[in-house]
Design goal:
The complex is a heterodimer of chains A (284) and B (762).
Chain A (H helix, E strand, L loop, with lengths): L1 H37 L13 H7 L2 H34 L3 H13 L2 H12 L4 H8 L12 H27 L3 H9 L4 H12 L1 H14 L3 H9 L10 H10 L3 H30 L1
Chain B lengths: L1 H37 L11 E8 L8 E7 L5 E7 L1 E7 L7 E5 L10 E8 L5 E8 L4 E8 L5 E3 L9 E3 L5 E3 L4 E8 L2 E6 L3 E6 L5 E6 L8 E5 L2 E5 L4 E5 L10 H9 L5 E3 L6 E6 L2 E6 L6 E5 L11 E9 L2 E7 L9 E13 L4 E7 L4 H13 L3 E7 L9 H13 L6 E3 L5 H7 L6 H6 L6 H4 L12 E13 L9 H6 L9 H12 L12 H15 L21 H4 L6 H5 L6 E5 L4 H10 L3 E5 L7 E10 L6 H11 L2 H4 L12 E2 L2 H8 L11 E4 L2 E4 L5 H12 L3 E2 L4 H15 L5 H17 L1
Parallel strand pairs in B: 26-27, 26-28, 32-36
Antiparallel strand pairs in B: 1-25, 2-3, 3-4, 4-5, 6-7, 7-8, 8-9, 10-11, 12-13, 13-14, 14-15, 16-17, 17-18, 19-20, 20-21, 21-22, 23-24, 24-25, 28-32, 29-30, 29-31, 29-32, 29-33, 34-35
The chains are: A mainly alpha (284), B alpha+beta (762).
Chain lengths: 284, 762
């Protein structure tokens, strides 16, 4: 009787998640399966080409450049963003004006990407404001978005725009740490530094995983600003994976696009699983 | 138990919501088909919507070279006042089938000496009002005559006020001349006159008294005025104003009329069947009907399916015979004669399908007048096909070329894409490589034309397939004195000379030379030759000299903003007058038509003027234009093939828009090319002259030597210019910086290579 009840319970559970699961299947899993299928077919004629598309993509210099730039951006941007956000969160958490300042940090997130892109254009154009100001103090300007500086401009802008979001996530994690632990530590003579390294950081481990994954996935959205500022073909230092996909789509290169998408999703999945495993093993 | 039931209800509710959402999505697509059905495609029920106006050309039996007005009289007679030898009045008692001359207009209103009949309008009772203009030393004076039913003319005592009072330099006031620009005869007692200043007068025909005056001076160039019954309809760009002609007061505006007026551009003619309770309006979109006080403007005739939508057709007058029959008088500059007037009859057929089953989608990035003109011809010969011409970019939307191409990709892959593609400014080579386009070579063989071989084969691949073919082409030419250019000059020799690019904008110079040089840059592996790009920029920079910053000032007479209509701005036409007036030393660029005027200017301007192919790093370059392809995923492959085949036939290639509409270039078919450049349309005015700048040039057919020379030039063209928009934009952008001195040629080349390499690597 008990096993029948359990079965009924699990069926009911499945029925509850069924609508959402159907959505995932229809809008994500089935299209993804089609992408995998297309990665073995020709672009328009749909003839079977085996692994040809994968070989083409791996040997494609535009793809390699985009992968390099995307990885470089992620590797520099994510650690800087996470650490900076943590630092700000800890300071703000202790400040009595933390709530107001936190809102100020969130403001950039509320700005539409188009507005941000327009400000960029005005600022960093070869005839733009920045060069005008620099000229005023006797420094020669530059065509910022058409030099390697474009990468650093993109990086700083991304951090500026997303810092608030990570601060909020860190502050949520900080709020979950009981004040009793800090009080007990202080009674035992622990200073601010010891409290941070021995209480705050260990208790933020679970938040760290979430924030890292979210920041990692969010970093792909930087394409919007880069595209709006510099179009389909920006300076090579800010030519990202999404530029390539965007241009491939326009040129009917569905074969290459599908193969690259399958490879990218595979790499992402492996990275996330490794990250999760590392965290799980630490928590154990 | 109650809780369990509630849970099941929730589950069911969610399931219903999910199913509802899914069926809602599919329902939407059905609705879309249904909407199409209203315009004449297949209805949801599967039945074909019936009923359409069919077009017929009316053979009046009279060689009209001008028709001033056409009207249905109270007794049902259709009356024309026009010119065929002299001005007269013709009647038809059988709805336009046959025409007989009623009488000649009296001598007072005939052209004689320095007077000419400029406008005329007919009333419902058969009277005619004529505007006779007398050419005086200062300007034309207008006189009004009323011609009665028996053909007798009486002067209407009306004096047109002067345009405005303008203060002269010595402080005195003098009147500017004024003239009547339009006349209408809405009822037997009154006429409506519009003057050059924008004032509209409601004048009594008996005494010439002005009953009401309406002031449209603020919108004089942008408005059309129609008197219908007792209502004055005034259309401008944004709205339609209505006036009560009894009181002269403005009526409240009508939203549907405003909206339709804005959407369908200017009405060219208006008529009524119910004394002004409702109006029939003619525009390039077709015929529309609107009942005053109503909420919708109904489209009765779709202009895309007949002559009304053809750019060369300009309707002059409309007469509604009844609800199912109408006549339209239009100007047809495409006719072999310069001033030909056509009469079209439209008859409602209840049996004809509202819109043919087959819909052929023709797509281009930008509006193309020539393809629209050809569609008009094709529709007349293929009544079973509805040609839906779609253009992605217009002044009304802010879509970029890249966005438009992505949308096109989506539509083609979803199976809803266009059947025929006009590939100008599109990545033609990429589309061919990806198999997006069908092979056209069998069609070109069947079309029976004799083509310039190198030009028609511009996109031929290694297997001999021609998946895209230019219907037109442009020739990069140069007009200059022998000190600036010698035929046969190569790029190095030409750029050695220093005064050839005076007053030219850097981007314009780079763009023009891109066509004659870019073709030499592509290496066998598809990449670009860096050394040649450096040479290109260095030599151009050296020949251009120091950049004059005042050229970048928007108020400078040479200033020109670069737009995406690239071929227009690289055309020789853009600098034609600057060359004639001596403001530029040379005129070079893309030649799209036989410009014998300019050749005469060249001969008069210089003792030893030279004309020849524009120098460049590549030799014998031509620019493919109006490049056509058929989508390999076309759902109307047969109709698409017929369309393209027809377009390459000699007859279609001769569609040259002689009425002054823009042409895309020379026809690729040899016989049509000859007809295009021989100037036959000037036969009737051979020997007359006109002025270009300070030069007097003869009008008339092109001399045989000039035809032979141009044909020889066309025959010599072997190299298609690189027309890839992405590479061109980068080259022009960086090249402009080099010529302005912002970058060195080497830096410019590096910037070009960096961006183009990514593009080519993709």
């Amino acid at each position: 009787m008990r096993s029948i009840g359990k079965t009924h319970k699990s069926i009911r559970g499945f029925l509850w998640i069924l609508p959402s699961f159907l959505g995932v299947v229809v809008f994500y899993l089935l299209p993804y399966a089609d992408v995998v299928r297309r990665s073995f077919l020709g672009a328009v004629d749909n003839r079977f080409v085996g692994l040809e598309n994968y070989k083409t993509v791996i040997g494609n210099t535009a793809f390699l450049l985009a992968v390099k730039n995307t990885l470089l951006f992620t590797l520099i941007c994510i650690p800087v963003l996470i650490l900076l956000a943590l630092l700000c969160a800890v300071v703000l958490y202790k400040s009595k004006y933390g709530g107001i300042i936190k809102s100020a940090f969130l403001m950039p997130m509320a700005l539409p990407a188009v507005s941000v892109a327009l400000v960029w254009r005005v600022l960093f154009h070869s005839q733009g404001l920045l060069n005008h100001w620099l000229l005023g103090i006797g420094i020669a300007g530059s065509d910022w978005m058409n030099t390697k500086n474009a990468f650093w401009i993109l990086l700083v802008s991304y951090i500026w725009k997303n810092l608030g979001y990570d601060i909020v996530l860190w502050m949520a994690g900080l709020a979950g740490i009981s004040t009793n632990i800090y009080e007990a530590a202080r009674v035992d003579g622990a200073g601010e530094r010891q409290c941070f390294f021995y209480i705050t950081l260990p208790n933020l481990k679970s938040s760290f995983f979430t924030i890292t994954v979210l920041s990692f996935l969010n970093s792909f959205k930087v394409f919007r600003e880069a595209y709006l500022v510099a179009g389909d073909y920006p300076h090579e230092s800010i030519y990202m994976m999404q530029h390539l996909f965007n241009n491939w789509f326009r040129a009917f290169s569905f074969d290459k696009m599908a193969a690259a998408a399958v490879m990218e999703s595979g790499v992402l999945l492996v990275l996330i699983l490794l990250l999760q495993k590392a965290w799980d093993s630490k928590e154990e | 138990m109650k809780c369990k039931r509630l849970k099941w209800m929730m589950v069911l509710l969610l399931a219903v919501l999910v199913l509802g959402a899914i069926s809602g999505c599919s329902g939407q697509s059905k609705n879309q088909t249904g909407n199409g059905g209203q315009d004449g495609s297949v209805q949801d029920s599967g039945e074909q919507a019936k009923g359409r106006f069919l077009e017929d050309e009316v053979d009046t039996g009279v060689a009209f070279d001008n028709i001033l007005d056409i009207k249905k009289l109270e007794d049902g007679t259709i009356r024309i006042v026009g010119h065929a030898g002299n001005f007269g009045v013709w009647d038809s008692k059988d709805q336009g089938g046959t025409w007989e001359k009623a009488y000649d207009l009296p001598a007072e209103v005939q052209d004689q000496g320095n007077t000419y009949l400029a406008q005329a309008a007919i009333s419902g009772e058969g009277q005619t009002v004529c505007v006779v203009k007398e050419i005086t030393d200062d300007s034309p004076d207008s006189a009004l005559y009323l011609v009665n039913k028996d053909g007798r003319a009486d002067r209407i005592p009306f004096e047109l006020p002067n345009d405005s009072d303008v203060q002269s330099e010595d402080g005195s006031l003098y009147g500017m001349s004024n003239g009547i620009s339009d006349v209408q005869f809405p009822n037997k007692d009154q006429i409506v006159l519009q003057d050059d200043a924008g004032l509209v007068y409601q004048v009594g025909v008996a005494d010439g008294d002005v009953k009401h005056t309406y002031d449209f001076t603020a919108i004089t160039n942008d408005c059309r005025v129609f008197a219908v019954g007792n209502t004055l309809v005034v259309q401008n760009f944004s709205n339609v104003l209505l006036y009560d002609m009894e009181t002269g007061e403005q009526k409240s505006s009508e939203e549907a009329l405003d909206k339709s007026g804005a959407e369908n551009r200017f009405f060219s003619a208006v008529d009524t069947l119910d004394a002004g309770e409702s109006i029939y309006c003619l525009s390039s979109g077709g015929l529309y009907h609107y009942k005053f006080g109503g909420s919708v403007m109904e489209q009765l005739i779709d202009g895309n399916m007949n002559s009304l939508g053809m750019p060369s057709c300009y309707p002059l007058a409309l007469v509604m015979i009844d609800e199912q029959n109408l006549l339209v008088v239009s100007n047809d500059p495409e006719s072999k004669s310069i001033a030909a007037t056509e009469v079209w009859k439209y008859t409602y057929s209840a049996d004809a399908s509202a819109r043919p089953d087959k819909e052929l989608k023709v797509y281009s990035l930008y509006e193309n007048q020539e393809i629209r003109q050809f569609i008009g011809h094709f529709q007349k010969e293929h009544a079973d096909v509805y040609v839906n011409y779609q253009m992605a970019l217009s002044d009304d939307n802010a879509i970029t070329v890249s966005d438009a191409l992505k949308t096109l990709t989506t539509e083609i892959m979803a199976g809803n894409g266009p059947d025929v593609l006009l590939l100008d400014y599109m990545p033609v080579e990429t589309y061919i490589e990806k198999g997006v386009l069908k092979d056209l070579s069998p069609l070109l063989k069947e079309s029976g034309g004799t083509y310039f071989e190198h030009i028609i084969n511009a996109y031929q691949d290694d297997q001999g397939q021609i998946c895209a073919a230019p219907a037109r082409f442009l020739i990069p030419l140069i007009y200059a004195d022998s000190s600036d250019y010698t035929p046969g000059d190569d790029f190095n020799a030409f750029t050695e000379r220093k005064s050839t690019m005076v007053h030219m904008l850097p981007w314009n110079v780079v763009e023009k030379f891109w066509y004659t040089c870019g073709a030499a840059w592509q290496k066998e592996d598809g990449t670009l030759d860096e050394a040649k790009i450096t040479e290109f920029l260095s030599r151009l920079n050296s020949a251009y000299g120091e950049y004059d910053k005042s050229l970048g000032d928007k108020n400078n007479e040479y200033y020109m903003e670069r737009t995406t209509h690239l071929l227009d701005q690289s055309s020789m036409d853009a600098r034609e007058y600057d060359f004639a007036y001596g403001r530029v030393n040379t005129n070079f660029g893309l030649c799209r038509r036989m410009d014998y005027d300019m050749q005469q200017v060249l001969e008069q301007k210089f003792e030893d003027g030279k004309r020849g192919l524009m120098p460049g790093q590549a030799d014998h370059v031509f620019v493919p234009a109006m490049v056509l392809g058929i989508s390999s995923k076309s759902s109307q492959a047969e109709a698409a093939e017929e369309f393209v085949k027809s377009l390459f036939s000699q007859g279609a290639q001769e569609v040259s828009n002689a009425g002054g509409l823009p042409v895309d270039g020379f026809p690729v078919e040899k016989n049509a090319f000859h007809s295009f450049i021989d100037g036959h349309e000037y036969n009737e005015i051979a020997g007359s002259t006109t002025t270009v700048g300070d030069f007097v040039v003869m009008l008339g057919p092109t001399p045989k030597e000039a035809i032979a020379e141009m044909t020889e030039l066309a025959e010599s063209l072997t190299t298609p210019a690189l027309t890839d928009g992405v590479i061109m934009d980068v080259v022009v952008e960086q090249g402009e910086k080099v010529l302005k001195g912002e970058l060195s040629p080497e830096e410019g080349t590096a910037a070009i290579m960096q961006k183009v390499n990514i593009y080519l690597a993709e």
